[in-house]
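Human: If only I could read backbone structure tokens as easily as an amino acid sequence. Take your time, and here it is.
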Amino acid sequence: MVENNKQNEETEAEIDAQEMLEKYDRESNYRTNIGRWAWVVTFIGVAFTVFQLYVGYFGTLPSQKQGAIHLGTALGLVFLLYPVKKGLQNKQKTIPWYDVVLAFTAMFVTYYKILQFDALRQSRILGYDSVETAISLLGILLLLEATRRAVGLPIVIVALTMIAYALFGDIIPTKVLSHQGFDYSRITNVLWFQDSGVFGTPIQISAKFIYLFLFFGVMLVHTNIGKFFNDLAFSLTGRFTGGTAKAAVAASALQGMVSGSSVGNTVASGSFTIPMMKNAGFKPEFAAGTEAAASTGGQLMPPIMGAAAFIMMDYVGVSYSVIMASAIIPALLYFTGIFIGTHFEAKRLNILGLPKSELPSFKKLMIRNGFMLLPLVLIIGTVMVGYTPQRAAIIGILTAYLVSLIRKDTRLSFRKLINVFEQGARVALPVIAAVATAGIIAGVVSITGLGAKFAAGIISLSGGSLFLALVYTMIACLVLGMGLPTTANYVVTATVAAPALINGFDLPPISVHMFVFYFGIVADITPPVSLAAYAGAGIARANPFMSGVGAVKLAIAAFIIPYVFIYNPILVLVDATVFTIITGVGTAVLGMIGISGSLIGYFNNKATIIERLMLFAGGLFLIVPEFISSSIGIVLLVIVWIIQGRRPKEYGLDNNKETVKV
């Protein structure tokens, strides 16, 4: 009877999680009942994954041909799986005829690049004819519609705005942004047939690297690594003050290593961790904000970094191992900041850890399931010793499959393996559509010179002040990143916003790209468009806006640490030594302690307004990597610690209610 109740609860949790995904994550609104077309989708999906594994290992196709197969197959699957309107996915019992027509039309106009590969090379020199222009126009329209279905409207609006900018640049009154304007045929042909548009760097990187790493994540999911990460997190942190919240942070950090979606990670982890946080005594808004902040930070964690690491590798011009090494300290600082915030909130509310008897044993976990970490260890290790990302991904995928054979409950039969191959294609569809549409945006920037114009505008607006330029760039990234998936988010912010800082202030490219990457990512938890926080609020039955505010409080490190990338880039390992890394990380952590204590309202005791201001100022002084400012920051924190230590302990039951003195 107890076992049946447990199974019913798990089933209800899965249903609730799926409902949250469908509500807040556009990528999850795919058809689940397609009748006889299921065989077609399975065949195309499996063939797609096999093709990607083949070229990932042998690498035999020119990038334009491989990109055409990559995008064309994905567009076909999008029209077969995603309905024209949100909500129809559970009502339609098969695929409508018009979506079948759109699917195969999208595949044809994309494969046309392969069928007429040599002729199109001639047309690039002699000019495109009317048929080719019609195909390019149709291809762009179908891509935008597929992206709207699989990803959502925000990125489509941005892409259409950019196309309009290319068309009508000559009527823009502002001299800084105006240009000569281009004919629609030139725009569509350049964006569809040449290297600077749809089939530019983003889709090429997707075809070479991103698909393989997403498939690697799918393989790991089917070894039940998510449950292992949750258990591991609780075994390590559950017994400490506010253990449930700390475990949620640790679990999301671990799952973020193989996940590329802040909303998906929030729902997957949050359906388990948010109820536990609420039961422990945390307010619903805080529980939702904690999970959203931690899950969003998962996209900052190597090795995948929401699949943006591979595009950054090409944009910055460094190896993948350099990107991973540069990202690890900032990511750990981000999660340290959230960890500190949850600790202070737990201290403020006097929420203790879980009893040891209710927690999984770390030793038993590692003995029983420690082998699950082997694929991750190998994929990181092979990259760091010099293997290409493709080869590392192949090794990781093969290792994940071999690991799955160890346990009966994770062993992949032939039927399960076919399903995994199909899921690999399904997971990649929104990412492929997003990066292809981001290619439109990057292409327009290239055609019109918008990157240089935007940079000139930022520099002019800031009056040459680096700090003001950083603030304006931060705002631009937060606005551009709202509602966009990670990869497209990074492409847009790196293309439009990064040149202002690199060219205008001669800053290290890796620092600037990490700066725009971070602020593009935290748009997912920044009100008013904080999708991850809204998803967490749905699970917690909390106020969505206040959940977003809570997430921002906890993720405050993501709003401050990027400035350190610029003023002292040792955190991204630019001109770094062991001593500078230790001191830089140490003062940054102390600074986050002060700022988190200020925002939460608790340090060594419940903080007064004056003490919160002192903590915030001390935190800012500590984050600035200079001896004098750091010394001032330490003095301020020590003063607050001593003052609070002389008062009786106070535990706030609520911001607006009484406190308990001990």
Notes: The two ends are 44 Å apart (CA to CA). The chain has a mean pLDDT of 84. The first strand starts at residue 650 and ends at 652. The chain has 30 helices and two strands.
